[in-house]
Design brief:
It is a single chain. A seven-stranded parallel β-sheet has the order 3-2-1-4-5-6-7, sandwiched between helices. The chain has a six-stranded parallel β-sheet with strand order 10-9-8-11-12-13, sandwiched between helices. Helix 11 crosses helix 17 and helix 23 packs parallel to helix 24 (596-608). The chain has three domains: 2-193, 3-Layer(aba) Sandwich (Rossmann fold), CATH 3.40.50; 203-397, Glycogen Phosphorylase B (Rossmann fold, 3-Layer(aba) Sandwich), CATH 3.40.50; 437-608, no CATH class. It contains 24 helices and 19 strands.
Length: 626
């Protein structure tokens, strides 16, 4: 197979967990005899040293965007990056014809590539896969980060879309696949598989300068009371709330208060995930009592090659490695500690319980409970035979679970299991089941627009092929948008609206519509209807849109929000073409509040979409129903 792994991260050049995965997976694919390309590591060292460090792997950077793309995408680094990937992939695929292209779901690097493949026929013949790591929204929740602005809303939507619309979704754990399936329901015929990360234990030990000796011949852990050595509790990884380092600090304080002789060593970079976005390291220091503080050491992060001696030193002290995350996917740090033969202690939520077999290759505890964590650590520190038994079993568990060849074989099975009929794409050349046509063109920002929509609905009756082009008076719609929209609507009955990126008179007034997204309707005009869209029409036996808007006191300026809300209210979906095919010359900022009338329209729209529990009139529901 000809494989392309897309990622901005790749060890040892830049990045963390995703970068380590991409490096391991590139080696695994190449060792199994496949042609491997890596796209997106825009690092000079990757392009020069990469081929030497990864024999047989080809490296490609992403290209700068053209000026119209920059104007449309400048507000969102995530969207700009996703469009860069899309452009570069189209160029590379024309030359190499990839069989399989894999994106991380994190920060939606593949969202616009997948959207372009579905709507515009790009990347023909390639299976598009998404490898789950941990979505940004889940990371924010675990870090108690409540800030939610436009960029984060767009990132969340693009992440969801990439997961939902991918041909294959591969997760290292059942736990993460279940969470993403609930948040991003799969499309028809999507392949799903649980395939662990690859982990080459011999290569890792060599990188640490350690021989891959039989584990029963390694230097045994010695009892602290014999040599007067104080057992060390070792944590390595980012000092981050979601990784539970504050719980470890509290548990350590309990151990010290109970007279347990031990020290705590935390190796990792600080983050601003303390209360209110403050330094986590400073927060941890403040949580420690004066006595416990004397036995805690904070150290800067170590390279992967330096981990071996650090973990082995902790083992020889009679200590343990602890990973107390509130929730975790498939942490490389845990795999590394187990491969080195350490006694590991981690929480039983998320993917760690799918790696560690409790009481066999490690110990699990109830997450979020410092007392249970303290008791589990104390038990391990006092029981040398237990530590030695767990340490012998841990490397074998990693070998059995993460064999690179097994991981490649399982991935191939997953991506070749997709039924040949597959999911219907908007660019398919099959006959249209429901011919579509434009029966009305309506300028939504002029008086009488609501009445014109009512009249178009009445003429359309229940004909699913009837569509209206809705646009602002100053907006220009590229004919390619209309052609693509009609084709897409004819093939996808659940879709009622197609729009595109909006190119304004300057960067401050250009944006990417989010499509129909009810969570954003209370504050943002993200639907695209205000500038231009093709909408499927349907007649219903409800009050007219004109009288409904009049009853709510909403004028022409608020009509786009009401239209978007009505479509959202029915749970239907929309397509957003990843091209700036709508030009709106008005100096309009769709994210700014523009007077009390507009504010009322947004609140009413959010209420219609079911996002508030007030008693707002429901006479608008079903005006544009199926």
């Amino acid at each position: 197979m000809r494989v392309c792994l897309v990622s901005r991260e790749m060890a040892p050049f830049w990045g963390a967990g995703i970068g380590t995965y991409v490096a391991s997976m590139a080696r695994a694919w190449s060792s199994a005899g496949h042609e491997v390309h890596v796209l997106g590591v825009n690092d000079a060292e990757a392009l020069t040293k990469g081929p030497r460090l990864f024999p047989g792997v080809r490296f490609h950077g992403v290209d700068p965007l053209a000026e119209p793309d920059e104007r449309t995408l400048w507000r969102s680094d995530v969207a700009r990056r996703s469009q860069q990937v899309r452009r570069a992939l189209a160029r590379l695929h024309a030359v190499h014809r990839f069989d399989y292209i894999e994106f991380p779901e994190y920060f939606a690097e593949g969202a616009l590539s997948i959207r372009g493949a579905r709507l515009l026929g790009e990347l023909e013949g390639a299976t598009l896969g998404v490898r789950l790591h941990t979505p940004d929204r889940l990371c924010r929740d675990l870090n108690a980060d409540p800030v939610l602005g436009f960029n984060r809303l767009l990132t969340d939507q693009l992440e969801r879309e990439s997961i939902t619309e991918a041909d294959a979704v591969i997760s290292p754990t059942r736990a993460l696949l279940h969470l993403c399936r609930e948040d991003s329901p799969p499309a028809d015929n999507r392949a799903e598989a649980v395939v662990p990360y690859p982990f080459d234990a011999p290569e890792f030990l060599r990188s640490c300068g350690l021989a891959h000796i039989p584990f029963d011949a390694r230097p045994p852990a010695v009892a602290s009371e014999t040599l007067g050595v104080v057992p060390e509790i070792l944590y390595f990884g980012r000092l981050e709330r979601r990784k539970g380092v504050d719980l470890l600090i509290d548990a350590f304080g309990l151990l010290i208060s109970r007279g347990v002789a031990c020290t705590l060593r935390l190796v990792g970079a600080d983050t601003r995930t303390g209360p209110g976005g403050t330094s986590m390291r400073e927060h941890l220091v403040m949580r420690l009592g004066s006595t416990a503080r004397e036995h805690v050491a904070f150290e800067e992060p170590r390279s992967r090659s330096e981990l071996g001696p650090v973990v082995r030193a902790s083992m020889r002290s009679g200590g343990v490695c602890c990973f107390p995350s509130r929730w975790e996917n498939f942490p490389n740090a845990l795999l590394e500690a187990m491969a080195l033969g350490a006694t590991v202690i981690c929480s039983h939520l998320g993917g760690m319980s799918e790696i560690v077999e409790d009481e066999r290759s490690g110990l699990l505890f109830e997450p979020g409970n410092p007392d249970r964590l303290a008791r589990t650590i104390e038990r391990a520190l006092r029981d040398r035979p237990l530590r030695e038994r767990l340490g012998r079993e841990a490397p074998a568990r990693v070998d059995a679970l993460c064999s690179p060849q097994n991981v490649v074989d399982a991935t191939v099975r997953a991506i070749t299991s997709i039924p040949p009929t597959g999911r219907v794409h908007a660019h398919d050349s099959a006959p249209r089941p429901t011919p579509t046509r434009i029966v009305a063109e309506i300028q939504i920002d002029k008086p009488g627009a609501a009445r014109e929509i009512d009249e178009a609905r009445a003429r359309a009756g229940r004909d699913q092929g009837a569509c209206a082009l809705v646009r602002a008076s100053n907006a220009q719609v590229d004919p390619r948008l209309i052609e693509t929209a009609l084709h897409a609507l004819s093939l996808a009955p659940e879709v009622h609206m197609v729009t595109s990126h909006i190119l304004g008179p300057d960067p401050a007034h250009s944006w990417i519509p989010m499509g129909l997204h009810p969570d954003a309707l209370c504050a943002l005009d993200l639907s695209g209807i205000g500038s231009g869209a093709v909408i499927r029409l349907a007649d219903t036996n409800t009050d007219s849109l004109e009288s409904a808007c009049s009853a709510l006191g909403i004028g022409t300026e608020g009509l786009p929000w009401i239209l978007a809300a009505l479509l959202c209210d029915h749970g239907i979906s929309s397509f957003v073409i990843p091209e700036p095919w709508i030009r709106d010359d008005r100096p309009r900022d769709p994210y700014a509040l523009q007077g009390p009338g507009m504010h009322r329209a947004r609140i009413a729209a959010a209420d219609i979409a079911g996002r508030f529990a007030s008693e707002a009139p429901r006479l608008l529901a079903s005006v544009l129903g199926r």
